[in-house]
Structure formats: C-alpha cells, structure tokens
Amino acid sequence: MPGIFISYRRSDNPDATGRIYDRLVSEFGKERVFKDVDSIPLGRDFRGHLNEVVGGCAAMLAIIGPLWTDARNSAGERRLEDADDFVRIELETALARDIPVVPVLVAHAAMPGASDLPGSLASMVFRQSIEVRPDPDFHHDATRLVSALRAILDPTAAAAEQAASRIKSPAAASGTPRGRAGWIVAAAALGIAAAVLAVPAIRYLRETPPPETRLDIVTPATDDPASFALSPDGRQIVFVAKSDGTARLWIRSLAKATAAPLAGTEGAARPFWSPDSRSIGFFVPGSLKRLDLDGGQPQFLAVVDAGGTGSWSSKGVILFNTANAGPLSRVPASGGATTVLPLMVKNSLFDFSPVFLPDGQHFVFFSADQADTSIYLGSLDGGAGVPLAAALQTIAGLLGRDARPMAYLPSGWLLWIRVDRTLVAQRLDVARGALVGETVSLADGVASASTSATGVVAYRVTGSGQRQLTWVDRSGALLGTVGPPDESLDAPRVSPDGRQVAFSRQTQGKRDIWLQSNARAMRMTFGSEVNDWPVWSPDGKRLAFQSVGSPTYDFYQKPTNGAQAQEPLLVSQKPQYLTSWSADGRYLLYFSVDPGPNTDLWVLPITGTRKPFPFLQSSFQKVWGQFSPDGRWVAYQSNESGQNEIYVRRFVVPGDAADSTAAQAGQWQVSTAGGVFPTWRADGKELFYIDPAGMMIAAPITATGSTVVPGTPVTLFQTNALGGGIDTGQGRQYDVAPDGRFMINRVSDTAISPITLIQNWNPEAKTE
Fold it and tell me: CA–CA separation, 705 vs 426, rounded Å?
C-alpha cells in the first residue's frame, strides 16, 4: 500500500522530525513511513534507490525548519545548490512524478520563497503548507497533519461503503450493458467521493493560525536590561545580569525555569548569536569576543573602544560598530584582521546597529547624519546603502543609546524601536530594497528587542527606569538625593563650590541642560537642539556644553545666572564631546570621533582665535579626558592595552616653554584591571574611576616635577551608577565634590522588567 516519504535535514530541527515520524508510524504503521537514508542497502546507488522508494509513495512531507534553505557543506556552499544533495534528489523525484509534496513548517520556520530554491524546486512555493508547532501545540498540529494525510492516502469508509452499495445493486451484478454502466457510475462516484472527502485535508492545512501568546521571563537584577538576545533556533536566551556585584552573561534554556551564568564573561554587554546557535558574540571593555557553548574560554576577536552592537552572518562574518560612532567594522567570526568599512551613506556621521538578513550577504543598519537617523539596506559586496525609511528618529532619540533598535524575522518583517519607545514592524522586500505595507505596533515603552529564526519575538520594556541623583560618602553610605527621580537624567556635574549640580534631562522629547540648587531646578538651555555634557568653568560662573542640531555638533558657553544668551565656542561637522575645563580657565578638553578607529583628545582655547589643537592622537581610542586641579596633567581612558584603562599624561601647550618631546613623552598607567571615566580629587592627590564591576576605585597620585607616580588602587564602594563600569557611550555618570562627597546618577531599580516573549505573532492573520 502506498506510503509517506519524509524528506528532512538532520541538521535542521531533527527533534521535530523524529516526533512527526513517531506519530505517523503509530497512525499508519512503520511499513508505510520512510524517513531515513540509513535504510538504503549497502552498495546501492542511492539515487536509484531513492527514486524507487519515492515512486512507491503516495505523498512526500518536506520538513522545513529555520535553517533548511541555508544548510551548507564543508566548503560553505548551499547544499540545495548541489545536484547530489539527498534532499534535493528526493524533492525533484517527487515533483517529477507529480507526487503530492506537502511542506511541513517546524520550529516556526517560514515558507521559502522562489528565490530561495533552485529552479527545479521552485514550484514548491505553490504547494499548500502546514505548520507543526512545538509543545504545547504539537499534538494538535500533528493531528491535523494525520487527518490531512488520511484524506490523501485512504478513501474514507463512508466513500467506500457508498461505492460498494452501488456496486452490489442488481444491475451492477449482471453482465449487461446496464451493469457495465453501473460499474462506470460507481467508479465515478468513488472518484467524486474521494475528491469531496479530500476537502477536510485542505481545511486542516488552511486552518486559522494559532493565537498569539505572550509570556514573561524574569531575570536576575541587571544594570543593563537592554542587553539580551534570543538564539536563532528559538531554544535559548542570553542576557546580562549581576551576581556578586559583577555583570556577566547568563543563559537560559526556554525549556527550563532557571538561568545560569557563563564563566569568563565578566563585564560583558550586548550579546548576539552565531547563526547555528552554538556560539555567542559579546563586548567587554575594549574588546569584542566570542564564546563557544561547547566549552573553552572566550576568544578575542577585535579591539573595540566602547562596545556597540554586532551581528553574525551565515557566511562567517561579524559586523559591529562602536558606541562612540564612526563606520561599521567587519571581522571573521573565527578571528583575524578587522576591516573598517567606509561609511555607506553620503554625509553620514556614523553607521550602527547592523542586523544581517538570512542570506548572510545583506544587512540592515542605522545611519545618522547631523539631524536624523534612518534605516538603510547594505551588502558585504560594498556600495552605497539603500534607504529604506528616513527620519525614523531624531538625534535626540539616538542619544537614548538603544542597545538593539532593530531585529529581523525570516518571515520578512523588520522590527525597530521608534524614538517614542514603540516597537514597530514593517515588511521588508529585499529584492526591491524597500519597506512595504503598513507599519504594525507590537509593544510600547520598549528598551530593546530580539528575534529568533523560528519566529519568536522578545522585548523588554523600560520599566520605571528611574534614575536618582544621589550623594554618597567615601564608603558608599547614602547622604541624600538631589531633585526628583527621572528616567532621563544624565551626566551630573558638581559646581566648583559644591552647591549646585548641572545635568541634562529630557522633557517633552527635548534634552536640555538643567541646574539644581537645593530644591530648586532651573532650565539653562532652550531651542530645538539636543544639549548635553555640561562642564563647569573653574569660577563656577559659566557652563560649557555640547549642542547637537542640524547640521553640526557645536560647543557653547552660557552664564549660570542666565543673564546672557549662550555663546558659540566651536562648530564641527563630526561628533565631539566636551569633558573638562582647565583650572586657569583658558582651555576646554574634548574628544573627537573620526571615521575609522581613531578617537583623539583635542584642546579648545577659550581666548584668542579659539583654534583647536590636538593633545593626543594615535591609532587607539582616547576619551573622557580630565584636567588635573593644577592644570599640569590630563587623565584619560584608552584601549591601547586591549581593554579600557586609565592613564595620565603631562599637559603641554604647543609653543610654551615646556613644549618639548621629552616633556610630552611621559605616560603612566593608573588602573590595573580595567577602568573607565577618570575624575580627580580636588587636591589632585587621588584619581577616581569605575572598574568593570561598577566599583568606585581610588588611586593615589604623587606628582613630582615632570613625573607621576600612581599608587595601588583601592576599592571604595559599588556605585550602582547608570551604565556601571562599561563604556557604552553614556559617559561619566558621577562627579566628586570639593569636600570629597560623590554625586552618583544611580539606577533606582535594577530588577527592571521581565523579558516578554511573543509566540505566533502574525499581524496579517488578525486582519483576515
């Protein structure tokens, strides 16, 4: 009796295939279900044997999982393109013999398009498919499949009985022409009955899709709730959480109720998966690394100044960006030379947040100019990015520092987070290079999102996300707070007399500089620009700050009494960030982000021609510089050792008497195990910074003549500051008052919200 042939790939969800096979065997018998090439007799030509077996079957099931179309051989070539590929031979044989081929979609895989298949299999896209979902829906879907197959394989008892009753009529029993006519009528009736009774099979295949469900995953406490990622196979999720005060990667199987930390990932942020779900890429201070889940220590891949976001292609390439802007970079997933890509958009300042598409060649990314951020389609082949959608968020939204603002579903949906924190999706037509159809909203107040190749969507809302400006002493004991909590507080700076705090905050979608004195808050900046990174003048009478508008990154200064309008100091076409004002009031220190890996320290004279000059230029990242209280030294953060550390150099002005090669040659490393965001004590005898675990560190500093002698760093307290000890581009979130108190921009609830999983998301089904 004709049977069922199951065509599948062992590397593509074998568990689902095994369960389907077991169910069919229990329903139809083992002799009617053919599943594995292991049954091919030794010495037989497998092509001929497959031809015989397939030819003896009444139906073929093509089990299609998330990796079915992109399975590759040892040479990295798609197996479907190989004429000797088992799966291809099986399907070609069935299609050539006009045997019904039923695509069975497992693990939430999408039906391949014609462009995903070789020409000999292209007609499969017109075959009605059926989805068999994981538990708890497996048995329901398997029952649908069995019923549909029964209608195809076996005429029902009712049809047989109906035909038999007609055959047994007196006319049919005779050998007269009337009897022969009865046989013809009976046969026709049998055919009609089979056709009519096959309708339930089509109904089963086209049954209304399963309902959308949402469930929450609670994680341990974290200062980095936006750092998480679903595995492509939809079976695991990795996220950043804290244990013993240290942030690291945790992994949880979605089949279990608990998570476990991953050794060797201390200080990790922004994880992303390999396409086969066996490895994880992640950022640590100064580096991009990968961890193979089958064992071993994390492997170094590339130097990265401040971890950005990354994506891993099926072709073994990792694309990533840094948090301090610039173009995208690529590195082999196995390790090797890093290549900086040219900016793919004209007049762009930086490209970021790449997300590879399933073909491993194309990717989507954000690109920002001076005013807006837009989505583009790019390719590893190079060339200009293709615009998909413009002005999705202003630069104000960009400064929200989303960890993962985009994700992609193999069913063709592109997801991103708007500036209003709404998670939205729209169809992406890669061939046309365009977003098509209507935009669909999935959730509000979202901080980050991720997807799996199986169709699951994960997102996390910002929760309360409250930050509180908090005074603490040298032991970390709470001394009081400044102003109300707010989810947008940023970059607090204490005035030279310790009586006021300048900071930036966002109100009604606009970021400005504010001053807080006792219980009174005063807004300092106005207009449409994004104002951030305040710096006090040494006399406390002025504030300098960055103002981002269209089309420039500008520096301004303004009296703190508000009596005069803000005065422009410097106009720039590239990103630059103010960090310090010299004690004599003559110079501002800032860092400038150039295309490529360089981020250099520059000095802006406040008087005279105000022509900037470089303080430190090299092939490494140098950021967050701070003048010493006497103006003789500059402390800064650099990744020249492979991770972020704190260094000190002599400050020399070109043309001064002290300007000499010898005077500028000295450099001293202060931190010993990683550090970010240096700040001097008021008397210059200590240098503070935050280590990768988020602890406040104090290093004694002894300066004699032209030499600095750093002492042994001492751990003071856990800061709980926004961003912790990881430089994600958020900048320094603490300051030190003249009396030794610390002002910390603390995250008031570190538990944040759970990660929400959406299963069976199908907005098109809701409109049918």
Answer: 63
